[in-house]
Each structure stands twice: as C-alpha cells, then as structure tokens.
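Action item from last week, closing it out:
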Amino acid sequence: MAQTLLIIFILLHGLIHLTGFVKSFNIAGAGTVTGKLRLPVPENRYRTTGILWLGAGLTFLISGMAVLMLKPWWWMLATAALILSQVLIIIYWKEAKWGTIANVLILPVLIVSCATWCFNKMAGQEVGEIMVHNTITDHTPISKDMTVRLPAPVQKWLLHSGVVGKEAAHTVHLKQKGAMCTEPSGTWMPTEAEQYFTTDDPAFVWNAKVHVMPGITLAGRDKYVNGKGNMLIKAMGLIPMVNASGAQIDQGSMLRFLAEMCWFPSAALSPYVKWESLDSTEAKATMTYKGLTVSGNYKFSHDGDFLSFSAKRYMDNKGHLSLEDWYIPANEWKEMDGIRIPVRGVVTWKLNSGDFEYYKWEVTDIAYNKTLM
C-alpha cells in the first residue's frame, strides 16, 4: 500500500512539472511562465528552463516507473529530479513554491532508499568476498563409499536427500520468507531474506528485510566469515540498532552454519565436521574451525528426513548473554535443485519460562554451485 501511494505521488509530481514545459513554450495557449522570479532569467532563456521542467518531470516519471518495477536504483533518478525541481521552484518561486512541499515529502523516502541500497551493497560486497576465497577444485561426485564412515542415521540422510551421485555443494544461494518475533509476547513481523553459503571454507552472509509496520522496516545482516560472526541491524537501513560481535557471537554464528547444513547435506562429509551416533535416528555433529568447536544434535525420521537440530547457544536478552537451549524443528520437505531438504520450520529458544518461537522460516528457492551474485 505504501509503495502504491509513493508511485502515484511521484508520477503526479512528475506530471505537474510538465506544466512548466507547456507554459514555457506556450503550448495550446497555456500562456508563458512570466511571474515574478526569485532569480532573474533572461527573456530568451524561458525555453531553456522549459526544457529543464520537462527533464525534471520525465525523470520523476521514469523514477516512479522504476519503483513499480522494483528497481533498487530508482532513488538515484528521483534525487536528480528533486534537485533540479527545487532549483526551478526557487527560480519560479511565486508560481511554483508549493512544489517544495512535495519535494520535502519525497526527501525522507529518498534518504531511506539510499540507506537501504547502501546496506544491500555492503552485504553484496561481503558475499563477493567469501566467494573469492572459495576456490572450487574438486568436482568429484559423492559416492556411497564416501558415507560409510558416518553414523547410520547420517548415511541414511545423505542417501535419502539425493546427494549421492552428485557433486558436493561448494556454494549455496537460497531465498527465504517467513516472520520474526523479538519477544515472547511480541507481534510477528513478515520477513524476506537471501543467504549465501560457501562450504569448502565455511562461511555465510544472510541479508534480511523485516517489515515492522507499513513503511517501517529493519535491515538485518548476519554473517560468519573466517571463523568470526557479526550481526548488524539498522532501522530503515539507516539507524544502527545492533552491531554484535565477539566470542559468544562467533559461537552462535558457527552453530547457525552447522544447523543450516541441513540445506546442503553434502557438507556433512566436510573435514571440519565430526559425527557421533546417539541412536538409530540421532547423531551429534561437532564442528571445529579456526580454533573454535561447537556441537549440536541432528534428529532424523526413520526414512532419513531431517527433523530437528538442537544445541546450547548464547541468547541475547536485552544485552545479557546466556547459554540457552536452541531448537530448530522442520515440518515440511521438498526436492529443490535435485536435493530433498527441509523447507519450512521454526527457530525456538526453549527457556525455563517456556518456549519462545522467534523465527518462522520457509525456503522458497535454492541453488547449488551456480554463479552467484
């Protein structure tokens, strides 16, 4: 709704600018723009300013269409149009001063759109950095013999998922939609995200947009690179709210990678992951990388589907970090890009006060070993 109103407003604002062009050329007897000018313009330059009115109007119209087409760079065109518009308004202040109100209303939207674009560009550069350091040299398909050293439930998972006979997933790109809640009694906020993984050198970058309310969003980026984690959250992509790092964040980010391995099961064969059988349907996964070790339990169905991941992870409760039970059950599975994976589930803190479900996720698309970015 907010986007629709923005498009209509920008298009109308652009059309109004065209009247300056029409009047400057006295098209269809519209009369010329001759009122008292804030800045003097030679008589023979009216047509030049008319062309500028046309340029501002058309640029607003094109930027409005770019918003409609979801082009992230629309704000660049709109900013150029706004600057030109305001210069013309100052020149023709007597007749055009009310256009300043429209420009002032558009300006905050441009600032937020610029901040969001910069945030996404930063995340994109970080994705590029992890890709540069992930050189794929081994394209050997996974064989059944490669899985025999793993516990029986893990072997069954790999066979059931369909990774045997295919190349290991060296890079992964997935898209999610879902909802986030920041406190047990809080409101669920619609969320969409993209995530990039590398598995030879384990890393990920998760870039999310959380819709707090109409017109108000949070930009979130979680990453795990070179054994270090960092969570960055900005309101409207502009105002910093969270910028967390340190040993506890490293532990949490590493656990996240280990849990989300359920989306690229071939990583279970990676040298940084060790497995220990717990029973016929459960195994303990231990990941050691860059001097840090974390562990979590994988639970599988008798058929070999991933059912859940559980571990002890640090939880941030209003600035206080405590080690709590972290639980991720899945409730739907599909074959995507040739691999059967969990596509729907929830992330839960199992607290003494009760379960706190804080993120409902759904994988909408996934691609392995494709050219990313």
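Closing note: The domain at 137-368 is CATH 2.50.20 (outer membrane lipoprotein receptor (LolB), chain A).
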